[in-house]
Specification:
single chain; about 550 residues; alpha+beta; Beta-Lactamase; Helix Hairpins; 5-stranded antiparallel beta sheet; 15 helices; about 25% strand
C-alpha cells in the first residue's frame, strides 16, 4: 500500500506541475516555441505513463460527464471501454447519495479532494470500495482511484473478531453472556461468563433451561417492566441499550441491576443474529444515591427554612417601615393641630386633617392587604362566583378608578368581548383589576397612557392592563409575585409588595393565570386569563 501511495503522489505531483506550466504558458505568450514543444512532449510522456499506470486515473466535468479513464480506472469501475463508461454520469457511480453530496461539497469549498473513501457500483452491480484524490481545474475534476475493496473486507473481518471480544470484555462486570437470535426472534444462550448465581441466584443451567426468563419478567416495579420491554424492542432495531431496573433474586430478595446489551447485525440477513449482555449489581450505588437524595432534600428544606427566615425579616422590616411613615405623619399633624389649632385658618386646619385621614386610610388599606394575604396563603379566601356581565363590572371599575385618579393619566378602556354573562367572583375580580390599574398609575409618569383591554379567546376572558412606566428589571422578574418582594428600580415609590401576590392567588382561585411582559423604562403589560364558565357544573 505504501508503494501505491508513493506512485499516486508522484502522479499527482506530475499532473500538478504540468497544470502549472500550462497555465504559465497561456499567460506568457513570449515563451519560445522550443520550450512549448518540450512541454507538449512532457505531456505525452505523462499521458502514456498515466494510461499504463496501476493506479486508476480519470477526469470528469463538475456536472458528471466522464472525459477520460485509464485502463486501471476502467478495471476498477468494472467497464470494458471508455465509451461504455461514458454512457454513465460519474456521480451516479457512487453507491450512496451522501457520498455524492460530500464529494460535490468538498470540490465546491476547496477544489481538491484528499483520500475520500466511498463505495461505487460497477457495470455488473458489484459494490467496490475506493479511495479518491484529485483536484479541480476549470470545471474539470481529475482524480486518482485506488481499489481498497479487498483490504476493507479483510479489515472488516479483523475488526469484527476484535470487537467481538473487546465489547464483551469491556462490558463485563459481574457476569456477561451471548444470546443467539433466530429468524423467528427466539433466543438461546451461546455462552455465559462470570458468576450470575452470586448476583441473581440463577445458575448457567437456569439460563439454558429457560428458568432465567421467569427472572427476566420478575421485575418489582411496573415502570421497570415497561423499560425492559422498550429496551428489548430497541435492541431488535440494532440499538445498543443500557437499563437500570429493580429485580427479584431467585431467593426473593430485591436487587438493582444495570443491564447493558450490544446487538450484532447481519447485513446479508438484514436482522439481529445475536446480542451480548453484561449485567452489574448496582444495589450499593442505588443505596448511596438514595442517601445523597435524602441529604439533598434536607438541604432543600434547610434552604426553604432560610428563605422563610429572610422573608419574615423582610416582612417585619416592610411592616415597620410602612406603618412608621403614616403614623409619623398622623402624629405630626395631630401635634400641630393640638398646639396651634386656634392659630390656623379653616383651610390650613383642613390640610392637616386630610393628612391624618390619608394616613389612616393608608394604614387601613395596608392592614386589609395583610389580612387578605394571610387568608390567601392559608387557602381561606372566600370564593362566591355569580353570573355577571364582564363589561358591566369592568366599566364600573374603570369609572370608579377614573373618578379618584388625580394624577392626570390618560386612561383608555376597550371592551371587545362578546361574552354577555359568565360566573365570576365580583369582589375578587374588582380587587384584581383595581390593584393592576393602581400599580399602572403608581409606576408611570403623569400624563402617560394607561390602557385597559377586555376580550375573550379560546373560551377564556382576557384582561390586559398596560402602562408606559418604569418597567421591571430582568433579575426581578422570577420573584415578582413573591410576598413583600419589590423590584430594585421602584426607588421611593410607596408600596408593601403584597399586592401582586394576592392578585395571583385570586386569579388562581378562578382557575386562571396571570402573566406579564415588560421592558425597563418602556412599560409593562399584565395579562389575566380566566376560563369562561356559564354553568354551576363548571365551577369547582
Amino acid at each position: 500500500m505504501k508503494d501505491t501511495d508513493k506512485s499516486k503522489d508522484q502522479l499527482i505531483y506530475e499532473l500538478t506541475d504540468l497544470r502549472q506550466r500550462l497555465v504559465n504558458s497561456e499567460k506568457q505568450n513570449e515563451q519560445s516555441e522550443g520550450e512549448l514543444q518540450i512541454i507538449l512532449e512532457h505531456y505525452d510522456y505523462v499521458r502514456t505513463a498515466i494510461q499504463s499506470s496501476f493506479i486508476g486515473v480519470g477526469s470528469a466535468t463538475v456536472s458528471g460527464k466522464i472525459i477520460y479513464a485509464n485502463d486501471t480506472a476502467l478495471r476498477i469501475s468494472g467497464y470494458e471501454s471508455l465509451q461504455s463508461l461514458q454512457e454513465n454520469n460519474a456521480l451516479t457511480l457512487c453507491r450512496k447519495t451522501v457520498d455524492r453530496v460530500r464529494l460535490c461539497k468538498t470540490l465546491q469549498e476547496s477544489g481538491t479532494v484528499d483520500n475520500l473513501a466511498l463505495d461505487i457500483v460497477t457495470e455488473s452491480g458489484e459494490i467496490r470500495s475506493i479511495v479518491l484524490s484529485g483536484f479541480l481545474i476549470k470545471d474539470v475534476f481529475t482524480a486518482t482511484l485506488v481499489d481498497v475493496t479487498k483490504l476493507k473486507q479483510a479489515e472488516l473481518v479483523l475488526r469484527t473478531n476484535e470487537e467481538h471480544y473487546r465489547k464483551v470484555l469491556s462490558a463485563v462486570s459481574d457476569y456477561a453472556y451471548s444470546m443467539k437470535v433466530e429468524p423467528d426472534k427466539s433466543v438461546s444462550l451461546e455462552w455465559l461468563t462470570g458468576n450470575p448465581e452470586k448476583i441473581i441466584g440463577y445458575t448457567e443451567e437456569d439460563f439454558r433451561s429457560g428458568s432465567i426468563m421467569k427472572f427476566a419478567l420478575d421485575v418489582t416495579r411496573p415502570e421497570h417492566r415497561q423499560l425492559l420491554k422498550e429496551s428489548y424492542e430497541a435492541l431488535m432495531k440494532n440499538e445498543r441499550t443500557s437499563t437500570e431496573v429493580l429485580c427479584r433474586r431467585k431467593d426473593g430478595q430485591d436487587v438493582w441491576l444495570r443491564i447493558y446489551r450490544q446487538p450484532i447485525w447481519d447485513d446479508n440477513e438484514q436482522r439481529i443474529v445475536r446480542y451480548y449482555g453484561a449485567v452489574s449489581d448496582i444495589t450499593k450505588e442505588k443505596e448511596i444515591e438514595e442517601t445523597y437524595r435524602e441529604q439533598e432534600l434536607l438541604g432543600i428544606e434547610l434552604a426553604k427554612e432560610k428563605e422563610l427566615h429572610v422573608l419574615r425579616n423582610r416582612y417585619l422590616s416592610t411592616i415597620a417601615h410602612d406603618f412608621r411613615s403614616p403614623l409619623a405623619a398622623i402624629r405630626i399633624a395631630s401635634d400641630i393641630l393640638n398646639n396651634h389649632i386656634s392659630d390656623y385658618t379653616e383651610t390650613k386646619r383642613k390640610i392637616y386633617f386630610d393628612r391624618i385621614n390619608d394616613g389612616v386610610a393608608y394604614l387601613d388599606n395596608l392592614l386589609q392587604e395583610l389580612g387578605l394575604l394571610a387568608r390567601a396563603e392559608r387557602g381561606h379566601l372566600s370564593f362566591v362566583p355569580e353570573l355577571l356581565s364582564p363589561h358591566k363590572v369592568c366599566a364600573e371599575i374603570i369609572n370608579d378608578f377614573i373618578s379618584i385618579n388625580d394624577d392626570n393619566h390618560e386612561i383608555i378602556y376597550n371592551c371587545s368581548t362578546m361574552v354577555e354573562k359568565c360566573y365570576l367572583d365580583e369582589n375578587l375580580l374588582r380587587h384584581i383589576l383595581t390593584n393592576l390599574l393602581s400599580n399602572a398609575v403608581k409606576y408611570s409618569p403623569k400624563q402617560s397612557r394607561i390602557t385597559f383591554d377586555v376580550s375573550d379567546q379560546d373560551k377564556n376572558l382576557i384582561f390586559k392592563v398596560s402602562d408606559e412606566g418604569i418597567g421591571i428589571p430582568d433579575e426581578n422578574k422570577p420573584r415578582l409575585f413573591d410576598p413583600f418582594y419589590r423590584a430594585d428600580n421602584v426607588g421611593s415609590i410607596k408600596g408593601s409588595g403584597v399586592g401582586l401576590s394576592i392578585v395571583k392567588q385570586m386569579v388562581s382561585i378562578h382557575g386562571g393565570q396571570v402573566d406579564f411582559e415588560t421592558r425597563v423604562n418602556i412599560g409593562t403589560t399584565f395579562t389575566v386569563t380566566i376560563p369562561i364558565k356559564h354553568g354551576d357544573s363548571e365551577i369547582s
